[in-house]
Design brief:
Elements lengths: L1 E4 L1 H6 L12 H12 L6 E9 L2 E8 L5 E4 L10 H12 L4 H13 L4 E4 L3 H14 L10 E2 L2 E2 L1 H10 L2 E6 L2 E6 H13 L3
Parallel strand pairs: 1-2, 1-5
Antiparallel strand pairs: 2-3, 3-4, 6-7, 8-9
């Protein structure tokens, strides 16, 4: 998977471009980018934001606008961001046996996560809109705190299965839930046995 991060995210997390990495990581990263670039299912946009003075990352899938909010992510945690995303995806679809099987197949075939600079204006607009409208710049997350615990799985469920996204297709506006669209795309590609 390729995670295209905003400039601010790159700076705050001290990320390096593939050409700045040391061998052999630079060659592996470049190979992943060459193989997966343009495959919107495997491309994600990422943006740093803050909630309760904690660094958080919002990621959005280019193909479906499926969105994950990763809360309290430290610089050292970033090397495991692909695993975190996989955990949330498997948990969100845990009652959907067909989808969990397809997700595992997707992860097996695309197990390296790398970072590149985000330039896709549509992804940037989706990140900004979701952060401001759904998350209310993080303030809405207080609604998901019960007993002193932030229920991030509920946040990620609600943004993907209760929040409508839009996408223009052939000049027409399509309304959909990110979780449903992501499921359809993943099953179309990885659901076949």
């Amino acid at each position: 998977m390729i995670i295209y991060a905003t400039k601010r995210t790159f700076e705050r997390y001290k990320l390096k471009l593939p050409v700045e990495l040391t061998p052999p990581i630079n060659r592996i990263t470049q190979a992943v980018i060459e193989k997966e670039s343009g495959d919107k299912l495997l491309e994600w946009g990422a943006k740093l934001f803050y909630f309760d003075r904690r660094k958080c990352i919002q990621v959005v899938n280019f193909a479906s606008k499926f969105t994950l909010f990763l809360i309290d992510i430290k610089v050292a945690d970033l090397e495991n961001v692909g695993d975190m995303m996989a955990h949330y995806l498997l948990e969100l679809y845990k009652n959907d046996r067909e989808m969990t099987k397809a997700l595992k197949k997707m992860f097996e075939g695309n197990f390296v996560t790398c970072f590149a600079k985000l330039t896709d204006k549509s992804a940037i607009a989706t990140l900004n809109t979701t952060q401001s409208r759904f998350a209310d710049d993080g303030y809405r997350f207080y609604e998901f705190i019960r007993g002193g615990i932030l229920h991030s799985m509920e946040i990620n469920h609600d943004v993907n299965f209760k929040w409508l996204f839009t996408m223009k297709t052939d000049g027409k506006t399509e309304y959909f839930y990110g979780g449903e669209k992501f499921r359809k795309i993943v099953l179309d590609r990885y659901g076949k046995s």
